[in-house]
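Field reference: "sequence" (input) and "structure" (output). Example, MOSC domain-containing protein:
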Amino acid sequence: MGARVIAVCADSGHRFSKPVAAEIRLVAGLGVEGDAHLGVTVQHRSRVARDPSQPNLRQVHLIHAELLDELEPVGYQVNPGDLGENITTRGIDLLGLPTGTLLRMGDGAVVEVTGLRNPCQQINSFSAGLMKAVLGRDEEGDLVRKAGVMGIVLASGAVRPGDVIDIELPTRPHKKLLPV
């Protein structure tokens, strides 16, 4: 079936979860139209408090639906938008992408993957213990952050559930995703 958009979400307020929408519009250089995190500079409240002039590398948040599937058998009912993502995907290993990967979707929208979402304690406020469930360890014992990836919008366009996602990897050497 390939990589696809399963759901899209946006919220004008700084709330943890975002309501599912029929479509969202990505705006080049800014993010998701009508979303609280839209902007050239960082919009996440904790980051604004530290340095409001930082570039916004977190304009779009993507989560793979496979994570939601993984959480259900261990007791967590998590739906698209519940973890604050703008785009829920299926059929793409978001966490395995290198920094700088381009994701083309919808009506010409292009998102450049900038890094991993660093999960925060708000996840436990949504559901007790969920923070531990979205963190793991790899074979070397290194921390694995499973709560999705962040990106910036390079080209504007509408994105809807069902849209195909075309993946364009950057030139080698690839850089592993780090938290942004």
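The chain has one domain: 4-168.
The two ends are 30 Å apart (CA to CA).
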